[in-house]
Write a structure and sequence with these properties.
The complex is a heterodimer. By secondary structure, chain A is mainly alpha-helical. Chain A has a single domain (7-59), classed as Orthogonal Bundle (434 Repressor (Amino-terminal Domain)), CATH 1.10.260.40. Chain A contains five helices and two strands, in the order E-H-H-H-H-H-E. In chain A, helix 2 packs across helix 3 (34-41). By secondary structure, chain B is mainly α. Chain B has six helices and no strands. The longest helix of chain B has 32 residues, at 81-112. Chain B starts with a helix and ends with a helix. The chains are: A mainly alpha, B mainly alpha. The A-B interface holds A 1, 4, 27, 31-36, 39, 42, 44-45, 47-48, 51 and B 7-9, 12, 77, 80-83, 141, 143-145.
């Protein structure tokens, strides 16, 4: 197994804080599948810069409030 | 098992099923031929080859129709950024296997000088590369990428 990307995120926390929206709803809003949201939340996949901004904009926060560098 | 399928994306399901189908047909073809596939002086197994090609085409169509019928909504969705990256990576692996196999078959040709053995070398590489692309896509989507 490869080392997970050194990027942490608060996507799950933000989803729960915003009315507990589903992974599918978030995925649809930013243009990825539910499985990609699951992979992001589990830290298995680092989204593209564009998707990272889309996620941040969806939750009305800055990118650095969603993603953090753990390297 | 049910959980495994419900948690899989459409492309992962398709990758597992298509990979297993092609691997199964490839094993069936080469098992039928046995050592004859790799011995110089044999004839082209036209009947078996046609059955293999026919089964591959019909099997792929049937499997894809079944998957699309069961998971119609997922099947319509275009590949997202992660799925596109996974497909690219699996395609690179597949290309390497196909290239290495084909080059090996060509290098071996002057040794045995048999066109049928060369053909089977390239065919085995093609089957392996297809299996790797499908299973690799499914595995990368499952493992995380």
């Amino acid at each position: 197994m490869p080392a997970p990307p050194p990027i942490g995120n608060r996507v799950r926390d933000l989803r729960e804080a915003h009315g507990n929206i589903s992974q599918a709803q978030l995925g649809e809003a930013i243009g990825v599948t539910r499985h990609t949201i699951i992979a992001i939340e589990q830290g298995k996949y680092s989204p593209s810069l564009e998707s990272a901004f889309r996620i941040a904009r969806f939750f009305c926060v800055g990118v650095e409030d969603v993603f953090s560098w753990h390297g | 098992m049910l959980h495994f399928w419900s948690e899989s994306s459409f492309r992962e399901k398709s990758g597992w099923v298509m990979g297993i189908l092609i691997a199964g047909l490839g094993i069936w073809y080469f098992a039928k031929l046995g050592a004859a596939a790799w011995l110089p002086g044999g004839d082209v197994p036209t009947g078996l080859l046609l059955r293999f090609v026919f089964a591959s085409i019909i099997g792929s169509i049937v499997v894809q129709i079944a998957l699309v019928t069961i998971w119609e909504r997922d099947a319509d969705a275009p590949a997202d950024e992660r799925e596109q990256q996974v497909k690219l990576r699996a395609g690179q692996w597949s290309g390497l296997v196909l290239g290495a196999g084909a080059i090996t078959a060509l290098i071996m040709f002057p040794v045995h000088g048999d066109g049928v053995v060369l053909f089977h070398g390239v065919m085995a590489s093609l089957i392996l590369s297809e299996v790797l692309e499908n299973i690799g896509t499914a595995w990368l989507l499952r493992r995380g990428f």
